[in-house]
Amino acid sequence: MNEKAKLIAPRLPRGFEDRAPGDIGAVDAMIAKIRTVYERYGFDPVETPFFEFTETLGKFLPDTDRPNAGVFSLQDEDEQWMSLRYDLTAPLARHFAENFESLPKPYRSYRCGWVFRNEKPGPGRFRQFMQFDADTVGAPGPEADAEMCMMMADVMDALGLAGKYVVRVNNRKVLDGVLEAAGVADEGQKLTVLRAIDKLDKFGIEGVAALLGEGRKDESGDFTKGAGLTAQQDRTVLDYVNGQTPPDNAGVLELGSMQTLFDAAGYGADKIKIDPSVVRGLEYYTGPVFEIELTFPVTNEKGQEVVFGSVGGGGRYDGLVSRFRREPVPATGFSIGVSRLAHALKLTGNLESANADGPVVVLVMDKDQTARYQAMVSELRQAGIRSEMFLGQTKNFGKQVAYADKRNAPAVVIEGSDERERGVLQIKDLVAGKQAAQSISDNTAWKAERPGQFEIDRADLVNSIKRLLADQQ
Length: 473
What we know:
Structural class: alpha+beta
Strand content: 15-25%
Number of strands: 18
Largest sheet: 8 strands, mixed
CATH superfamily of the domain at 11-140 and 318-355: Bira Bifunctional Protein, Domain 2
Strand order of the largest sheet: 1-5-6-13-12-11-7-10
CATH architecture of the domain at 11-140 and 318-355: 2-Layer Sandwich
């Protein structure tokens, strides 16, 4: 290589992250538990590609040369714009519409995968992150929505979060009815009112009242303009937020039906509750909406104690599939934010670590004997034991053991010339060695005792390693 050639700086783009083996293993274990619940409810897996035609995602802006508002886009060889998927729901709608004739109806599926947002990154806000969704397409009744809520509760229980969450439920039809009763007709004003209601948990009733009126000034002095409601309009909305039952409409009846199903299935208000402050997808959802809120306290970046908050949610979106087909197609579903949920499990001690799953390492004491070492590794692998032969360049025993430590190896296998002549092997239990090291401070004593190391017959390699791994469990 030309010494004057400029080296490329190894830089990770903002909004993206690398994942280590322990993180991957822990999240995989969490996903497996979620998948088990989904499949118990009768949902089947489906995968859609990372790329979709941009118009499929609904993010194409015809007045721009490049559709990059919120999505990462490129043109294919036919000059058609494609974008990395923004979520997992729009691709599902395309998949269902494209395979409408062959799919069962209702169509019940789940998907887990990466999604991409071309948005400004920040603390805890990534441009690539994982979602785990479940959806029922083709079922119009509130029974399908209630089932989603119950499945969300079962997922949280399966992850060890019983008593630390609540699934909160509302209905966009109820919200629309309240806005109609209050005489709020302007679409922009409607969105401002709904955003104000959505801030109830964060700002309290006084903060919501301010946002419904002229506006609210926060602690830093920043001012957020309000909806500008009249006193009577303000009272109508606040009565609803305070729990007063709104006039009967389709949304109220649907929530009543869902509550009946929750009661029949044994899901009390400690797990699932009707909550008028739930507002999701201001221009997206058409009926029941729901979210999982974790209720245990955490300290935010300002040092304040707050509840952890939402880790997922969803609702009914009857208009999405109709973008592809003329007839109405009802649909409901929810999405879990995998990274945020994993962070919550880590805080509560419920995220399983995969750090102890390293391989048994067969050390290379003599380079001319690699065939013998490879034979040992093959025996272990054929017995289903994760293992590897040391492939580094060093012959130093200590450095090879240090490598095994970094790999979280449970043990190393040692065969030098003396062991080879006697037909034996040395096994060094690295877990037992680390435990013994806590009580031995003298280096001479350490070398003399060789804690965790024992001798076996060469023929007993597989059985000895199996016993050692069983003892470490």
